[in-house]
Structure formats: C-alpha cells, structure tokens
From TrEMBL:
Keywords, comma-separated and alphabetical: Allosteric enzyme, ATP-binding, Cytoplasm, Glycolysis, Kinase, Magnesium, Metal-binding, Nucleotide-binding, Signal, Transferase
Reactions accelerated catalytically: beta-D-fructose 6-phosphate + ATP = beta-D-fructose 1,6-bisphosphate + ADP + H(+)
Name the UniProt record assigns to this protein: Phosphofructokinase, platelet
Single GO cellular component term: 6-phosphofructokinase complex
Keyword field contains ATP-binding: yes
Obligatory cofactor(s): Mg(2+)
NCBIfam families referenced in this protein's UniProt entry, alphabetically: 6PF1K_euk (TIGR02478)
One Pfam family, short name: PFK
GO molecular function, one term: 6-phosphofructokinase activity
SUPFAM superfamilies assigned to the protein according to its UniProt record, in alphabetical order: Phosphofructokinase
InterPro entries assigned: 6-Pfructokinase_euk (IPR009161), ATP_PFK (IPR022953), Phosphofructokinase_CS (IPR015912), Phosphofructokinase_dom (IPR000023), PKF_sf (IPR035966)
Residues of the Phosphofructokinase domain: 13-308, 388-601
Transmembrane feature ranges: none
Length: 703
C-alpha cells in the first residue's frame, strides 16, 4: 500500500457522486486530492483551475446534476504542446495519479497522456522547467477511468454513470404524454438521445411498452413502413387509445438513410390519418437530479477507482472501473475502448448483428425481450400447447409487479400456453377468483404502480384443499408467484403439501418483488429501486426546505423490517451522516453524528443532518429519534448533552438504551400519546409512565 502522501486528481465529465466518493475515499486513505476544473482545458491552463479538495468541499453535492467542477472539450490537449503544458502543471503539484471520468474520447486521451508521460518529463527537463528530482519523483503516471455517458455506449460495463438518470427523464416525459395521448387518441413520436447507440431508446421503449422503436444498431427491414402502420392500426382496433413510437436520434434504415421523427409523423398521418405529434426531448435528458441508482453507482465506482490507484504499480496498465453484474470490477482501459470502436466499425460495414453482440449481453437481452413483448403473433402462428399457467401476486405491493405480470402473460401466450390471472393472492385463489387473461388485457400495465391483480399477505396453509380444487377445476399446470418473503413461504407450504395434494406437483416459480430487498437468491428485487428513489427524493426536499433555517437534525425512518437495505443504500444515495439498522446493534452513545464534527476544527455551514433508521418489526412502528441540534456539533458523549431536550417517539427499547448511562443520570418518560422526553438529572432513577414499560426502574449500575 502506498504512503499517505499520494495525490489524486479528478477530470470530470460525469456525475458528482463519483467526485464525492473519490475525494472522500482519497482523504480517508491519507491522500491529497485535487480538483481539475473545466476538464482537460483546466489541466492545460493550470493556475486556479487546479485546486486542492477538502472533505467539506464535496458536501451537499449528491443531489446536484451535471458536474460542479465543470467540463470542457479541449482542442489544445489533442496536440503535443497542450499535453506538455498539462504535464508541467501536474508535476508542479506532484500529481501522478489521475482519476478521469468521461466517455471513450476522454479516456483514450488520458491513456495517450500516460503513454507519453516519460517523454513529456524529459522535454520539460531539457527546457529547464523541472529538475532531475522532479523527474525522479514523478516518473510514473497512473490512470483510472470511470465512464460517464448517458448513452451507455461503452463496452465492458453494464451501465455507465448518468444513464439511469436519463432514463428517468424519458419515462417521466412518456408518463406525462400518455395522459394527453390517451385523452385525444393520439400517436406520439418521441426522439431521444443516442446518435451512435440506441440503448436509451430501446430500454425506454421496453419500460413504457412503446409500439415501435428505432435504433441505429438494428435498422428495420425493407417494408417497415407498412409493418409499422399495420401494427398501429391493429392496436387501435384492440381499443388502445394511444400509440407511442420512440426514435433514437441516430436511427437509420437498412440503406443507411436517416429515420427522423418528422418522417415517421408524415407516414402515420398519410397512411392512417391518426392525429400525430412529435416530441424531441433533447438536453432535458442530461439534466435534473440524479437517480438513486446513479448516486450509488458513482459512489461505488469512485471508491473502487481510489483503491485501484493505491494498488497500482509501475507496470500496471490503465484500467477502467466497470459494473459487471452487480460488482464494480477493473478492466483494461484500452481493450474496452477498442471494443467500443469495433461496434461503430461493424455498423459502418452493415454488420448489425455483430454490432448488437458487441454491445454486450445486457443490450442483447433487452432487444430480444422488447421484440418478444411487442409483437403479437396470430393464433395460426402460435405453437400448440395444452399448458395452463396461473399468475398471482402475494405479499405487499411493490413497483414493477404489473410489468412482471405483463411480461409473463405475453411470453406465455407467445409460447402457446393459456394464461390465467389470480386476483387477491392465495385468498382469491381459494375463492375461485381466476380468469383467463389475454395479450391485450395487460396493455399499458408497465407504468402502473401497485398490483392490478390485487395482492394479500395470506399464506395458503389454511386453504390448501380449496386451492387444490381450483387448480383441478382450471387444469393449472404451473404457478408463477410474484412477491416477497410471503411468496417464498407460500410456495414452501405448497411444496410440503405435495404428499397430500397431487395438484401441487407442478412447476412453481417465484419472482422476488419486495421493496425491502430482503429475500435470498437475488441482488435486487422488484420495487427496491423505486423505493430508494422515493427516499432520495424525500431527502432532497428536506434539504431544500431546511437550507434557510437554523441547524437542525432530521431523522428519516425507512421501511425494511429486519433488513437494513433501504436505510443503508438510501443513506449512501442521500448523503446521510449516519444510518441505524437492525443488523448493527446501537445504543444511546451511538446517537451522535460522528463523521463531521469537532466544532473547534471544522466550520459547519450546513443546516441539516440526516440520520436514516430502518423500521424494525416486532416493535412500535412510530420509533424514531430526533436529536437536539447541539448534539451534531460536539464530539462529547451524548450523556453530557442531555440537558437539552431529546425526543424519543417510542420507548419500548428504553431499558436497553439506558444501560449505557452513568449512575448519576435520571431518565423520565412523560408519555403523551406517542412521545417521551429524555432529560438528564442528578439522581440515579429511571421512570416511565408508558403502559407497555415498567413504571419504575431500579438505580442503574453500569460498572
């Protein structure tokens, strides 16, 4: 491990979460961290464009979109003379480690800069601008890249920083457009960014259930005009009141002719006579508040980038931090850049299948899924099958349940199966609330929240005979259960009942859907990401409302039961000062904000401190703690500050917390409906008037 006199620099064309993570991780390991403002231009110009970063300089920036330290294209850096100036500016400050956040162009430039580094130092030495000692101490330049691009056009990573936020902007617009389109029976053509990559168009079409999508990697076959118009006409005949067509700005046909929104509009109006409107999103997609996913992704990548620089040796090639599966990994930078360039080469040569393959497995899967869910085969084209599949939701509602039902129904129908929808979970199953569901019945379900089928937490154990009877009546050959932990328990009960009910001896599958993300077998369950976004939005609003007030501490309780996923990851995305979760025990001494705060040395210019608590099952759901603001500004033990009011909304765990107080403390709990006031005194007694707590505790002995 390198000593703590390490230097880092940030060249940013990405997200602020990554900047914050690099700065704080660098400081944590003892490094000196520098900002380079205005990208490569700032590196070439030097001066005030290169400034040392502090822990406080990246506070309250997670919710800010774009880049707070600026970015600029620099023609001068493309020249040898420009890179020589940049090298001189870095050597003057002893910077030999660069963390570069940008696209393939920025990363390629960084690698070229690294390859020329030794030669640049020799030139500076010959010109008398640096001495031998500077050449020796700065002999190696280490580069680590992170990809910031809303197009998600960089090979080697499943997701680039900024892509998820851009998708949020697109889906918000689509949801708003759908209301007016449905009211007026209109067709809308949306153009999204993606000059050379159709990821945004493809995934947004998949997410909103668009009727047609145009992407540069897969131009439509000849005759697409008639096929598209026929599909739009069929959808209207099925009583669908709107049509959505999404076009990537780089969309082309099989003859490399551009497909524009206006071209599509004229075609629809001329052939079908539909009222058609065009919406071009433009740079709206680049702006706005970052999503929870982007904040977490940037934070994880930033930490990994610092670790990569710490572990780099003289022979270590430049690497890029990528997301593969759910893990941050390091890949050779230039291999990824070359693969990215191969995609464009394949497209230029009209090898579109090869271009899709080079985009990666995620892109391929999204494309095949969209095709599967958007094309309704004729009955004569369907395979023969006597397989009946029942789909039901179990447990609490979670965002994404309806999209999952839509996908399951349409895939099943495409395979020739007969699909049945069960209302109200296993309770409805036992009552016979089962009906066949068709392709068009699930149209428009992707953007609907909750559970349109209805869901309940009821387990099947007490209704096994009735459920078995309904399965026999409807000849159910398979079960798909969408839900959380109750779904797991339910299928376990059905599995154990197979010895008594042969109807349960059929394939059964679970699709995890719970906002708590507390079930085994998956890194992410349906609903968790939407819940994280709700937490982050709440925290952002609190920051805005409290920015002009006196110093305050805000406590935000999240759901999660015995799982602290929402609190932990929500705290990471929102920039909480501390997080309290069930998995890590805490006592009253821990109710201090520890990461800020030695008032003698650090100037606090914030008005809000966030503490996220995970709601625990088996205790009062109103549990939360609101600390007096002085506690957040001092480093002394909390028991020395109890002369200030500390409100505890629920004291069922009061006895445990009080064990940490000195014998000279007195705790009184004057219970109103749901609150207790905790004050410090000079006697050694604890009283509590709550009906669910002891009236009087004996003197505490904490020795």
């Amino acid at each position: 491990m390198k000593p703590p006199n390490l230097f880092f620099s940030i060249l940013l064309t990405g997200m602020n979460a990554a900047v914050r993570a690099v700065v704080r991780m660098g400081i944590y390991v003892g490094a000196k961290v520098y900002f380079i403002h205005e990208g490569y231009q700032g590196m070439v110009d030097g001066g005030d464009n290169i400034k040392e970063a502090t822990w406080e300089s990246v506070s309250s920036m997670l919710q800010v979109g774009g880049t707070v330290i600026g970015s600029a294209r620099c023609k001068e850096f493309r020249t040898h003379e420009g890179r020589l100036k940049a090298a001189h500016n870095l050597v003057q400050r002893g910077i030999t480690n660069l963390c570069v956040i940008g696209g393939d162009g920025s990363l390629t430039g960084a690698n070229l800069f690294r390859e020329e580094w030794s030669g640049l130092l020799n030139e500076l030495l010959e010109q008398g601008l640096i001495n031998e000692e500077a050449v020796s101490s700065n002999s190696v330049l280490h580069i680590v890249g992170m990809v910031g691009s809303i197009d998600n056009d960089f090979c080697g990573t499943d997701m680039t920083i900024g892509t998820d936020s851009a998708l949020h902007r697109i889906i918000e617009v689509v949801d708003a457009i759908m209301t007016t389109a449905q009211s007026h029976q209109r067709t809308f053509v949306l153009e999204v960014m993606g000059r050379h990559c159709g990821y945004l168009a493809l995934v947004s079409a998949l997410a909103c259930g668009a009727d047609w999508v145009f992407i540069p990697e897969m131009p439509p076959d000849d005759g697409w005009e008639d096929n598209m118009c026929q599909k739009l006409s069929e959808n209207r005949a099925d009583k669908k009141r709107l049509n959505i067509i999404i076009v990537a700005e780089g969309a082309i046909d099989s003859h490399n002719k551009a497909i524009t929104p206006d071209c599509i509009k004229d075609l629809v109006v001329r052939c079908l006579g539909f009222d058609t409107r065009v919406t071009i999103l433009g740079h709206v997609q680049r702006g706005g508040t970052p999503s929870a996913f982007d904040r977490i992704l940037g934070s994880r990548m930033g930490v990994e980038a610092v670790l990569a620089l710490l572990e780099a040796s003289t022979d270590t090639p430049a690497c890029v931090v990528s997301l593969v599966g759910n893990q941050a990994v390091r890949l050779p930078l230039m291999e990824c850049v070359q693969m990215t360039q191969e995609v464009q080469k394949a497209m230029d040569e009209k090898k579109f299948d090869e271009a899709v393959r080079l985009r990666g497995r995620s892109f391929e899967n999204n494309l095949s899924t969209y095709r599967l869910l958007s094309y309704h085969k004729l009955d004569s084209e369907l395979p023969n099958s006597s397989f009946n599949v029942a789909v039901l939701n179990v447990g609490a509602p979670a965002a994404g349940m309806n999209a999952a039902v839509r996908s399951a129904v349409r895939v099943g129908i495409t395979e020739g199966h007969k699909m049945f929808a069960v209302n109200d979970g296993f309770e409805g199953f036992a009552k016979g609330q089962i009906k066949e569901i068709k392709w068009g019945d699930v149209g428009g379900w992707t953007g609907q929240g909750g559970s349109l089928l209805g869901t309940k937490r009821t387990l099947p154990a007490k209704r096994l005979a009735k459920i078995a009877e309904q399965m026999r009546i409807h000849n159910i050959n398979a079960l798909l259960v969408i839900g959380g932990f109750e779904a797991f328990e339910s299928l376990l009960e059905l599995y154990e009942a197979r010895a008594h009910h042969e109807e349960f001896c059929v394939p059964m599958c679970i699709l995890p859907a719970t906002i708590s993300n507390n079930v085994p077998g998956t890194d992410h369950s349906l609903g968790a990401d939407t819940s994280l976004n709700a937490i982050v939005e709440t925290c952002d609003r609190i920051k805005q409302s409290a920015s002009g007030t006196k110093r305050r501490v805000f406590i935000i309780e999240t759901m999660g039961g015995y799982c602290g996923y929402l609190a932990t990851v929500g705290g990471l995305a929102a920039g909480a000062d501390t997080v309290y979760i069930y998995e890590e025990a805490f006592d009253i001494r821990d109710l201090q904000v520890r990461n800020v705060i030695k008032a003698k040395h650090i100037h606090i210019d914030r008005s809000v401190t966030y503490i996220l608590c995970s709601a625990r099952q088996g205790r009062d759901p109103d549990y939360t703690i609101i600390l007096h603001p002085e506690i957040a500004l001092r480093d002394e033990p909390i028991v020395e500050l109890l002369s200030s009011n500390v409100w505890i909304l629920c004291c069922t765990e009061m006895r445990t917390a009080m064990k940490t107080l000195p014998q000279t403390s007195s705790i009184s709990c004057t219970q109103r409906k749901d609150a207790a006031c905790l004050t410090a005194g000079r006697t050694s007694s604890v009283t509590c008037s709550r009906s669910d707590a002891n009236a009087t505790f004996l003197p505490l002995d904490v020795r």
